[in-house]
Amino acid sequence: QNFLSSINEDIDPRRTAVTTPKGETRQLVKDGFLVELSEGSRKLRHVFLFTDVLLCAKLKKTAVGKHQQYDCKWYVPLADLVFPSPEESEHCPQVHVIPDHELEDMKMKISAIKSEVQKEKANKGQSRAIEPLKKKMFENEFWLLLNSPAIPFRIHNRNGKSYLFLLSSDYERSEWREAIQKLQKKDLQAFVLSSVELQVLTGSCFKLRTVHNIPVTSNKDDDESPGLYGFLHVIVHSAKGFKQSANLYCTLEVDSFGYFVSKAKTRVFRDTTEPQWNEV
């Protein structure tokens, strides 16, 4: 089976699905890098949402030139996946939040290293200094990527196990939740994957993934625009058009290389269809 599937993969590289044992196709719906809180420490995971299963994987360390592979950490069939109540999901006593000033210090460091790299590039002669600087920048940005997210995104498996991701973006959290809930509207069956099936599914992740690089500057091309910087003055007045009362707030997020960071949040207006924030 493995031999034949490797032949078939060569024939059609554009495929976006894997076949399940029952002969149905498993489409990849969404994937991306998320920080998981596992056994008290933060780990960077690549999460894959297929039509009937959520799979959490880690990119294996491989020798240079070897084919990269994912290692499955866990999976939850969507038929068994439940979201906790809003109160339960926001309450996360075990999350150690890094103080803002430490995150800001790290951003300043990264910014300083960036300027140094630009300087070195201008003095084309001394290119030897660039590599260590880039390595240091990658390490710092990776630290920031792991330590800045603090918005809890919790998932339960009906059969007992519970998982916790930390995101830096409210919007991203609701995107993941909505994508999962949309798939759950279909008639889904619970199942257990055999080790071979899990291997085939995890093996397909590398080929099917849509997000290839972790969102750090070192993965960007040098000729990309440096982006914008400065001060943004925003007044959030009100919102209307809601069909039913809800607790409403507005979040302002800023995108840094496809990675969103929350910059400001209005107060929550409770049980209303017409919130009036008028906040600067």
UniProtKB/TrEMBL annotation:
Domain of life: Eukaryota
SUPFAM superfamilies, per database record: C2 domain (Calcium/lipid-binding domain, CaLB) (SSF49562), PH domain-like (SSF50729)
GO cellular component, one term: membrane
Residue span(s) of domain PH: 27-185
GO molecular-function terms, A-Z: GTPase activator activity
Pfam families for the chain: C2 (PF00168), PH_19 (PF19057)
C2 domain residues: 210-280
Record-linked PANTHER family: ACTIVE BREAKPOINT CLUSTER REGION-RELATED PROTEIN, BREAKPOINT CLUSTER REGION PROTEIN BCR
Protein name as annotated: Active breakpoint cluster region-related protein
